[in-house]
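1st attempt posting a full record on here, be nice pls
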Amino acid sequence: MLPFQETELLLRAKDGDHEAFAQIYERYAPTIFRYIYQRVGQLELAEDLHADVFLRVYEGLARYEDRGWPLSSWLYRIAHDRLVDSVRRRPQWIALPLETCRAQGNDTEKMVGTRLELEELHRSLDALTEEQRDVIRLRFGAELSIQEVAMQLGRSEGAVKALQHRAIQSLARRLNVVRG
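the predicted structure (as tokens):
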């Protein structure tokens, strides 16, 4: 979506045009959901947070000020804030997504192996710097381009590429050592 189209939709949505808000939702809901799900790993929690993000967007339209940043930056900021709030309130354990359990069927050995691999991945991600984790989650979880990640994080494209490269190297080293 072009910047002038975003601005027009935002202005219409701020004026109470529900169709404009629906267009914003349709455009950004899938990527915001992927971003949230990638971080929480639980379908039900991701769905709840996703709904809450767009409720807050709707409620915050009247206060939104265009500062020259893409609309997606504001949406990801709200999603990030909701994620931080949810992490503070939930227990610190890793849940295996229900879809993974169903995919494994009744094969307990495979299910345990999958769970251990997910735990290894989560520990490896936790070992990255916060910036590296953000880049990895935005690039591969939310499927944003380098340019979009740079805008979201307020960094140059070169800095994002460097963070991504270092993060991938670190993950590869850690996962190879663990499997070893």
